[in-house]
Amino acid sequence: MTARLSGKTALVTGGASGFGAGIARTFAAEGARVLVADINLDGARDIANQINGIAAQADVTRGDDWTALHSLVAQHWGHLDILVNNAGITHLPAPMETITEDDFDRVLAVNAKSVYLSARTFVPDMKAAGTGAILNIASTAGVSPRPHLNWYNASKGWMITATKAMAVELAPSGVRVNCLNPVAGDTPLLASFMGEDTPEMRAKFLATIPLGRFSTPQDMGNAAAFLCSPEASMITGVALEVDGGRCI
Fold first, then answer.
1. pLDDT of 44-98, one tens digit each?
2. I need a surface site. Which of 5, 28, 190, 239 has the fewest CB within 10 A?
3. Which residues are registered as beta bridge partners of 56?
4. Widest CA span of the chain, in angstroms?
5. 168-206, pLDDT tens digit by residue?
6. Helix/strand/coil (H, E, C) string of the chain?
């Protein structure tokens, strides 16, 4: 690793598993101090212990939990350099009109409202400091929607647009905002995306990815580390596809 994040502080939501864990590990390997936040506290502690970071239990849909994360950052580091909104969920594949209102509300709360709450909590500090990097984890589903995942697709399209809107508003304050669009990975959400996790379903899905494999946590970590590093100081408002060519 290059230590491109040396001296930086970072908060990664949904950091206990999957892409979030990959981002947290890569950030730490690149020299950052990392706060791993997840609704699964045991999982967050496990990753934090692996990377000499700190852990917190947080429901990203609750403003009080964001306030607690802000207090924890202030207590340990005094400031936050990098905010990664990675926590996300989906509903099971089904015709759009059959998705329950509870499932719709839950998907939009975790995938969209959390970005608003995170900005309300940490953007004032970043603006005051004149620097900061925010990274939202969206999806290829926000670029090339898949049938039967309609409201998940919409939530990720919202995140892409929110990223660009945040970027243009915060640029004069020295704060950069980007997002990543991964294709599905071999993570806890894979079965939910496919409806069922079978060799046949995996083969069918992989056939739609030109490079012939899923996104990995390390793929996401590498891309995230670049976009949040000084090397990307001229990049803001980008929705970078980490998808093996799926959206071509």
1. 999 999 999 999 999 999 999 999 999 999 999 999 999 999 999 999 989 999 9
2. 190
3. 37
4. 52
5. 999 999 999 999 999 877 766 666 666 667 788 788 878
6. CCCCCCCCEEEEECCCCHHHHHHHHHHHHCCCEEEEEECCHHHHHHHHHHHCCEEEECCCCCHHHHHHHHHHHHHHCCCCCEEEECCCCCCCCCCHHHCCHHHHHHHHHHHHHHHHHHHHHHHHHHHHHCCEEEEEECCHHHCCCCCCCHHHHHHHHHHHHHHHHHHHHHHHHCEEEEEEEECCECCCCHHHHHCCCCHHHHHHHHCCCCCCCCECHHHHHHHHHHHCCHHHCCCCCCEEEECCCCCC
At 217 the pLDDT is 94
The yes or no reply on domain 9-242 and CATH 3.40.50.980 is: no
List the chain domain ranges: 9-242
Q: What is the pLDDT of residue 41?
A: 98
Whether this prediction's pTM lies above 0.85 is answered by yes
Q: Does the active-site annotation cover 152? A: yes
User: Taking Cα atoms as reference points, which of 161, 180, 204, 206 lies closest to residue 88?
Assistant: 180
- Strand 82-85's sheet: what is its strand order? 54-57, 33-38, 9-13, 82-85, 132-137, 175-182, 239-242
27, 66, 122, 152: the catalytic one is: 152
Cβ proximity of 183 and 244 under 8 Å: yes
Amino acid, res. 114: S
Q: Which residues contact 123 (CB under 8 A, 6 or more apart)?
A: 132, 134, 170, 175
Residue 237 clears pLDDT 90, i.e. is over it: yes
